[in-house]
Amino acid sequence: MMESREIQSILPHRYPFLLVDRILEIEPGKRGMGIKNLTGGEWFFQGQRTYPPTLLLESLAQVGGIVLGSKAREENPRGQFVGLFAGVSDFQFQRYPVMGEVITLKVVATQSLASLYRFAAEVLVGGEKIASGQILLSFVQNPSEEPGRRPAEKK
Amino acid sequence: MLHYHPGHSLGDANCIRRLNITNGENAGWAERKKWEELFHRLSYPFPTLMVDRVEEVEREKKIKAIKWITANEFYLAGHFPGQPIVPGVLTLEGMIQSALILVGESFSRGKIGGYLQKVDRVRFKRAIIPGDWVEFLVSLTGKEGDLWTFKGKAQVDEETAAEAILVLKVMIREVGFEL
After folding, report:
1. Within a domain: residue A54?
2. CATH of the domain at A68
C-alpha cells in the first residue's frame, strides 16, 4: 500500500490537481489499483455534486503514472523520469461518480511502444463498474529536457 | 461599433473583424455571461466555463471557441509547481464544453442536457502554457438517435495541440418556451 506522501514523492502533481489518494495494490510496471475519496470540500463540487468525467480520466492517468514511476524508482532510486498524459481510446462512461463516493481506479499495462504505454483502465464504485476504456501515457526515464518543454521554435 | 480589448492580443485585422463585439464597453463580458448561462443550462458537471469567447457557431454543424491561458489560473499551481502546463484533460474539457455550447445553440427552446457518453482517439500532442490562446474547433459528424458525435481539435498558433472524438447523449429534459 502506498499513502499520499509516497504518492507525492513519485508524482509531481499537487493541490488542486492531485487526484488520487491512496494506492491499495501495485505491481510496478504492470498494474495498480488506487482510490480517490470524493468529499464535499473539493473545488469541483461548487454548485454541483458530480465528479467531472475529465478529472476521472486524470485520476486514472495518475495511477498509471505511479505504476510506471514506481518501476523506474525500483530500477534507479535516484533517477529522473517524466510522465505525460498522451491520449485516451474508446473510453465509455456508464455513469459519473458523485460526492460521498469512494472511487476505485484500476489500471493494467497492456502494451508499450518506445516511450508510449497503453493501459486498460476501469473505474469502480462499490464493485460496480461505472467507466472503462484505455489510456495512453508517455513516460521517459532520465529525460534530457524538462517535461512539457516545447521543442525549440522554428525560425 | 467595434470595441477592441487591449488585453486580448489580437494583432491582425482579420481576428478583430471576426469577433462580433458591437455594444461598447461591456460587450465582452456580456457575451461571456451569455455562454456561461447557456453552459449552466446544459447541467454538465464542471464548475467553470473553459471557454472565453465563441467566435463562430453554426447550428448543428460546427463551433469555434477560444480560451486564453494565464499563469494566474488556480489549477496551474498544482500542475506543476514551478512549471505550469495546462492539464491535457482540461483541454479536453474545453472541447467538450464547446460541443455542449453547440448543442445548446442548436435548440431554440426547452431545457437540454448533455451527457458525455464516450471519448475516443484523444491525443495530446503539444504542451499548452501560460500566454497561449487556444482555439477549440468542434464539428458535428454524426447523429444516431440521441447520440451526437463530434470531432474536436484544440489549436495553438495554427498547430494542433489536442484532438478527440466525443459522443454526447443529448436529452431534452423539459419542453419549454422560446428562449
Report:
1. yes
2. 3.10.129.10
What backbone torsions phi and psi does residue A9 show, to the nearest 5 degrees?
Answer: -80, -15
**Residues of chain A whose pLDDT is less than 70?**
145-155
Neighbouring-strand partners of residue B119 = A91, B166
CB-nearest to A52 from B43, B45, B83 is B45
Residues of B in contact with A61 (CB under 8 A): 89
Rg of chain B (C-alpha set): 16
Contact check, Cβ <8 Å, A93/B116: yes
Is residue A70 situated within a structural domain? Answer: yes
Select from B81, B93, B127 the Cβ nearest to the Cβ of A54.
Answer: B93
CA-CA distance, B164 to B141, in Å (whole number)? Answer: 12
Residue A148: inside a domain: no
Q: By residue range, what is the domain housing residue A90?
A: 4-141
Query: What size, in residues, is chain B?
Result: 179
Q: Is there a domain that residue A147 lies in?
A: no
Number of domains chain A contains: 1
User: Using CB atoms and an 8 Å cut-off, which of residues 49-108 of chain A contact chain B?
Assistant: 50-55, 57-58, 61, 84-93, 96
Tens digit of each residue's pLDDT, chain B (179 residues)? 344 444 344 344 444 434 444 455 667 788 888 888 888 888 899 998 999 999 999 999 999 999 999 999 999 999 999 999 999 999 999 999 999 999 998 887 767 889 999 999 999 999 999 999 999 999 999 999 999 999 999 999 999 999 999 999 998 876 655 44
With CB atoms and an 8 Å threshold, state whether B75 touches A93.
no
| Residue ranges of domains in chain B | 13-178
Per CATH, the number for B13-178 is 3.10.129.10
| Kind and range of the H or E run holding A130 | strand A128-141
How far apart are the CA of B5 and the nearest CA of chain A, in angstroms? Answer: 28
Q: How far apart are CA A147 and CA B84, in angstroms?
A: 10
ipTM summary value: 0.92
pTM for the model stands at 0.88
What are B169's three cell numbers? Answer: 447523449
Chain B neighbors of A87, CB-CB under 8 A: 121-124
Size of interface A-B (CB pairs under 8 A): 99
